Amino acid sequence: MSWSSIKRLLKRPFVLFTIILLLKGHLAWAVTFGELLPWKVLVTEIPFIWLLFSLVEWFASKRKLTWYMVINLLVTSIFFAVIMYYKYYGVIVTYHALEQVNQVTAVSNSVFSLLAPYYLFIFTDIILYFILSFRHTKFKQWKRHMAHKGSKRAVSILFIFSLVVCLFNVLPNRASMNEITQAQEMGILSYEAYTIFSKDKTEMVPMDEISQQSIDQLKGTTVPVNPAFSQAAEGKNIIIIQLESFQNFLINLKIDGQEITPNMNKLVNSNFYFPNFYQQVGQGNTSDAEFVVNTSFYIPSIGAATQNYPDKQLPSLPKLLKEQGYQSATFHTNNVEFWNRRELYNALGFDKYYAQPFFEDEDVVFFGSTDEVLYKKTAVKLQEMDQQTEPFYAQVISMTAHHPFTIPEDKYKMTLPDRYEGTFVGDYIRAQNYADYALGLFIEDLKKNGVWDNSLIVTYGDHMGLPMYSLERKDEQLMQEIYGHEYSYKDMLNIPLVISGPGITSPRVFEQLGGQVDILPTIANLAGASLDSQIHFGQDLLNQNTNILPQRYYLPTGSFLSTKALFLSGSGYEDGTHYPLAGYEDSSVSATKAEYEQALKLLHLSDSYVSQLPDRQKK
């Protein structure tokens, strides 16, 4: 083919925009699926694009090039959103994420930190189009030549062919559990369309068929007659400290002799420590952790709990402890409207919440006052609450060690080794070192004002800080240096849990598997609060040795942790991947299909129960 023939072809918008969007599809696939030259783009993305182009060729006699650019902009925006969302969450974005649009400005630092400069090339042709359309005479002439319609017969044949290929990509993969695999087999664009038009046909389990007994049977839980540590903290204040992005590898970590989290280490080495503890959050991240911990329910299948369940009469820890005579409050330096927390706190039954106006201070990092301000003002308020006749339950949400972890230099409390400087992992470690410093000040204040000795303190991480899919090669090498092995899913989801209480706890490590859903029943046992009439999906970690933890969002649907392994679902169980947990690395253990089915049933029961709870009357 001669160069003149190629030029004539490229002047046809159908051909030109096919090539442009093919290149953009390659970029999206390279980032999300790790395939540099994926041939599947040709058989998944291009047929969907041709469907759209065929509509233009059929119906657009005027402004044809404009309509091609509209489609180009739409598809480009989808690919760009997929890239950015995957880098932050590790999942494929869908239209449901539009509910998060009002959250983006609050985490703009996080978003921009993930933006590799070459991602912006995806918009190059669009920028050039607008420049040339106003300034270049030949370009204007080319636009006018686009007015004629193509052959209707040829367009019809192409439309039917493309539709058949798209259906062939979509229909066989509808039952796949793994959303990333689904998008890869269907194609990103077809997957996005599928999520819009598909309806959830899952039937809810009737409320009268959901009982604590049925949940315990699914999990294999047997409630002991005389549970250990029952009522050990009865009448004590209960303080939950939720640490932002705090992963378990930080515990007792030293880098070139420097202790990274000395204050957490003191808590861990002097109290009850649960090293095999895992996050169970989803799209709502920190707010999801607040929901799971305070309800012992799982997160919804789509969206954040704060967006799905705030109108429900939620059984919760604040309500349970109120029956024991407790007052309750929650403390967070962020805007209470962020992630709809005002409604969440009302639904959970907190007596009071203290948010951004209470902590207003010049010492601000990211989108709220620093942990030092949080802890200092909270300690004063807790002392006031402690002086009242009834005990209190307080949840304290730290924030400064938030993605992207680029804290101001005046907050540096350590000097990083040179190899960590300028890396994502280095920024994370330095931010957590500061967060630990602030936590130490809080503990000192609570001990000085007498609150510590009269309290049970539960400390845990809310969610991961270092997603595998956000790490550059240098970061991966640093994580391998820290772990002694390649950083994996089981490492990424692992967060610490520490239970501290003067006269109650002692230096002890509990090796059993646990998750955030287990915190409520564990506290209930210690506080002597009966759960006989409150449905919960967690279990008392002080009295159970086996467990199953269904996962959502950060792992594909159908993934879970069992006592021996983390299971990452494929299209189903048979093509899933097994990651042995600590102590089982040298054996050929695997999570069983029975456990896989149990995990799915537990999620379904939780969804059914919470969705059918009565609506609450708003104040």
Automatic annotation (TrEMBL):
Keyword annotations: Cell membrane, Manganese, Membrane, Metal-binding, Transmembrane, Transmembrane helix
Subcellular location: Cell membrane
Annotated positions binding substrate: 402
GO molecular function: metal ion binding
InterPro entries: Alkaline_phosphatase_core_sf, LtaS-like, OpgB/LTA_synthase_biosynth, Sulfatase_N
One Gene Ontology CC term in the entry: plasma membrane
Sulfatase N-terminal domain: residues covered: 236-529
Keyword Nucleotide-binding among record annotations: no
Membrane topology category: Multi-pass membrane protein
Residues holding Mn(2+): 244, 286, 462-463
Pathway(s) the chain acts in: Cell wall biogenesis; lipoteichoic acid biosynthesis
PANTHER family xrefs: LIPOTEICHOIC ACID SYNTHASE, PHOSPHOGLYCEROL TRANSFERASE I
Protein family membership: Belongs to the LTA synthase family.
Name listed for the protein in its UniProt record: Sulfatase
